[in-house]
Amino acid sequence: MRYLPKSDSERRQMLDACGVSSPEELFAHLPEAVRLKRPLALAPGISEYEIVQYFRDRAAENANGYASFLGAGVYNHFRPVLVDTVVSRGEFLTSYTPYQAEIAQGTLTTIFEFQTMICQLTGMDVANASMYDGSTAVPEAAMMAVRATGKGRVLIAKSVHPEYREVLRTYAKNQGMPVEEFGYVPEAGTIDLEDLDRKIDDFTAAVIVQSPNFFGIVDQVRAAAEIAHQRGALLVVMFTEAVSLGILAPPAEADIVAGELQSFAISPCYGGPFAGIIATKEKLIRQMPGRLVGQTTDSRGNRAFCLTLSTREQHIRREKATSNICTNQALIALMATVFMTVYGKQGLRELAEQNLAKAHYLAGKLKPRFCGKFFNEFVVRMEGFSPEAQNNILRRKRIIGGLPLGRFYPELADSMLLCATEMSRRSDMDTLAEVFDPRNTPSRRVDNLPNPEVPA
Q1: Which class would CATH give 67-78+345-448?
Q2: Which of 40, 372, 396, 417 places its Cα 20 to 30 Å from the Cα of 18?
Q3: Tens digit of each residue's pLDDT (9 = 90 or more) over 321-379
Q4: Residue 197 and residue 209: Cα distance in Å, rounded?
Q5: Parallel, antiparallel, or unpaired for β 126-127 and 276-280?
Q6: Which helix (H) or strand (E) holds 156?
Q7: How many Å apart are CA 266 and CA 269, to the nearest integer?
Q8: According to CATH, what is the number of the domain 81-340?
Q9: Burial code of 214-232, b = ≥16 C-beta within 10 A, e = fewer?
Q10: Where does CATH 3.90.1150.10 sit in the chain?
Q11: What is the pTM of this model?
């Protein structure tokens, strides 16, 4: 039988240790109906070479070598080789959560450096040891504001990433936390400050905005902060494109900053895992979820690190826990830490400038729908044809187009969200612009197009 040792002596030794005389006796307690009477339907083993070739063949079936203009929260950026070199080291790759400071100084040091760099990027006083991702960081920030203010209502801009808003509603459903949205200005793509002013009240705990927002527009953080603070609410500013922090002023007017660091050398990887962050002012530190690593000195007076604050249910009484998040995403956060170390302040600024220049070059060949200032994403209206049809044409040219917006914004069903990063080549941008020119391709009906030459 396949599940027993091969030699008779080994088989007899195992059966004797179990106190039975035969394999049938070993499984005699199982009902006859659930016993498998045939060998398992497993393919025979294959060599290492064949395994490697199998995965190469599967990889070739994906859009390998395609240019991509798809952003919407997950971005195609260059990943320095050093990132994987560091995170693949056994000390990091196989390490467990750093409960015992005396054997986890390496991990604690990297988390401390991560927190420090996030504070520098966001202009906040303190940052935690990372969240699962940006989508869960937003509701955690909302609940943090509810605890801090003693109020229960949350206002979130409709220009915040729609999937993040869905996750917020999932969290809020059983929290007794009302969530209401306020709109955006149709012409500019920025938040509608008048709508915010109408909907905010004295029971509002948090106002949540995104900048750059889901449309790529740099939004009015300062004006939103003034409205929120006048009514005693906290302002939560979130981001999905971390590279923008290399050129935009930190959202210092915010009380809480939540965001996603996928852009910092974390592979798109079919949607995760990523690393979210929460950073805040010092006065709110005890309302933070997750963990906080701090610097101290050991018994010999040397610099050392330890878990300074862990306000979660594994460390304190459940009723006092701020969150049930049970990881700090340390390995993924380390990727971002290595990235920030490699690029530095000047390098991150130059990277942001490249993204800005590439996106504006592409936008100059098209017609952005919104007039607000944007970073590396913008919305373009399709003229007389559907975004899906355009994407079919682009795929035949080995280009992955943008995100059709009708799924999330019915009023923008004729529009597409495009993104250009430092990885976007001018020739591909020129090709995309040619395809988008209605004079070059008169018919855009999806049902008239042949199937794109992309593997299923």
Answers
A1: alpha beta
A2: 40
A3: 777 676 668 899 999 999 999 999 999 999 999 999 999 999 999 989 999 999 999 99
A4: 14
A5: antiparallel
A6: strand 153-157
A7: 8
A8: 3.40.640.10
A9: bbbbbbbbebbbebbeeee
A10: 67-78+345-448
A11: 0.85
